[in-house]
Amino acid sequence: MSLFTTEQLAQLEQQAIELPSWAFGNSGTRFKVFATPGTPRDPFEKIADAAKVHEYTALAPTVALHIPWDKVDSYDELRSHAEGLGVALGTINSNTFQDDDYKFGALTHEDAAVRRKAIDHHLECIDIMHATGSRDLKIWLAEGSNYPGQADLRGRQDRLHESLSEIYARLGDEQRLVLEYKFFEPAFYHTDVPDWGTSYAQVAALGDKAMVCLDTGHHAPGTNIEFIVMQLLRLGKLGSFDFNSRFYADDDLIVGAADPFQLFRIVFEVIRGGGLNNPDVAFMLDQCHNVEDKIPGQIRSVLNVQEMTARALLVDGEALRAAQRSGDVLEANRVFMDAFYTDVRPALAEWRESRGLPADPMAAFAASGHLAKIAEERVGGVQAGWGA
Ligand code: AOS
Ligand code: ZN
Ligand code: ZN
Questions:
Q1: CA 243, CA 258: separation in Å to the nearest integer?
Q2: What residue ranges are annotated as transmembrane (predicted)?
Q3: What is the DSSP string of 53-108?
Q4: Is the distance from the beta carbon of residue 215 to the nearest atom of ligand 1 less than 6 Å?
């Protein structure tokens, strides 16, 4: 007897997680970036690596790009390259955090010329989205200030609205803007989009095609993230997740590694709020693999999301509601924890095999010798990094 019902298996089969192209490049801390042989040298190779993750798991059919890191001469060519490998191009991430001009802001800058440059960058991203067939433009802003008094907080919020309005007006009918929030870093006193409330206020003022992006690493320690997930779903404004895990700050570690229970609680609220396999809610990863191999790092990540989704699907909703209604605190908690403590791995392995996938994608990938093969093939050129 399978652990899962047919309906639960159907949910698991539909699950799709978007991979970030930058996860396949070399990354590190401000102290050192460790290079790995075989690291992609261009966006084409990053997509080939992402396609491997999908090949072994059937969980990652799309790849998010970052502009300018993934700029190419022909997006048609990049698109057919991806399609030829069985994946599609996904979210386009903008970048207004690397130019000297943006030292004091981009979309919020006091100087109209700098704002113009930042807005134009986003309009270029929308043009690229038409070529790549992407739906979402994801905006994360590195804007803020370090010292009290340094910036006019209110003026910046007003300019942000004006800039976003111009970008929003350029979106096609099927396109969306997702605005990510982050409570600190690179600025340390204030950030212009620090929390879900600010992101919500800004996107609500734009219209239906603007949504909030929730990066799990962008909250103060102790924040109840699943509550935010519930609220945004309730408001119809949860556009996407950037999944990763953290111990201290924005660590960008493998999702589910630091706190699998938190991931379980988040996915439970996603299911409760109708967000699972709902095209309006994109599941993306936003991670860096500093010391571990990148392709298996991504395989581990999507499997972690799948495992916690499988566990969350096992919560006995009726029993939970009955306990909640009758005020049976300990029974409600038992029902919830029973699902969390269920080891779904053997059942998932069996189910994968029944679909022609490897029972253990990590082991199958390791046995394929693919990492050694790309290390040998990808010589010459410059390895991609977080930022190139
Ligand atoms: C930055 O902290 C954000 O998480 C961004 O989503 C992302 O890491 C960056 O934009 C890479 O594209
Ligand atoms: Zn992010
Ligand atoms: Zn981040």
A1: 12
A2: none
A3: HHHHHS---EEEEETTTT--S-HHHHHHHHHHTT-EEEEEEP--SSSGGGTT-STT
A4: yes
One-letter amino acid of 146: N
pLDDT at 194: 98
Whether 74 maps to a domain, the answer reads yes
Domain-embedded: residue 35: yes
Q: With respect to residue 269, please indicate whether it lies within any of the assigned structural domains.
A: yes
Count of all residues that appear for the chain in the document: 388
Residue 286 Cα to ligand 2 middle (Å)? 5
- Domains: count for the chain: 1
Mutate to test the pocket of ligand 1, among 29, 67, 136, 140 (most ligand atoms within 8 A of CB): 140
| Cα–chain center distance at 165 | 24
Give the domain extent around 93.
15-313
Q: What is the pLDDT of residues 227-278, one digit of tens each?
A: 999 999 999 999 999 999 999 999 999 999 999 999 999 999 999 999 999 9
Q: ipTM of this model?
A: 0.97
As a whole number of angstroms, the distance between CA 250 and CA 197 comes to: 19
What ligand has the least distance to the C-alpha of 22? 1
Ligand 1: atom nearest CA of 180 is 6
- Report how far residue 19's alpha carbon sits from residue 113's, in angstroms, rounded to the nearest whole number: 34
The amino acid sitting at 190 is H
What pLDDT score was predicted for residue 17? Answer: 99
What pLDDT digit, counting tens, does each position of 355-373 carry?
A: 999 999 999 999 999 999 9
Compute the half-sphere exposure of residue 59: CA atoms within 13 Å on the CB side of its CA: 26
Cα distance between residue 41 and residue 68, in whole Å: 15
Q: Would you place residue 1 in the very low, low, confident or very high pLDDT band (cuts 50, 70, 90)?
A: low
User: In this predicted model, what pLDDT tens digit does every residue of 125-167 receive, in sequence order?
Assistant: 999 999 999 999 999 999 999 999 999 999 999 999 999 999 9
CATH number at residue 192: 3.20.20.150
Give the residue whose CA is nearest to atom 8 of ligand 1.
286
Lookup result for tokens 């392709």:
295
Quote the Cα angle for 74-65-128, to 5°: 45
Asked, for residue 100, whether it belongs to a domain, the answer is yes
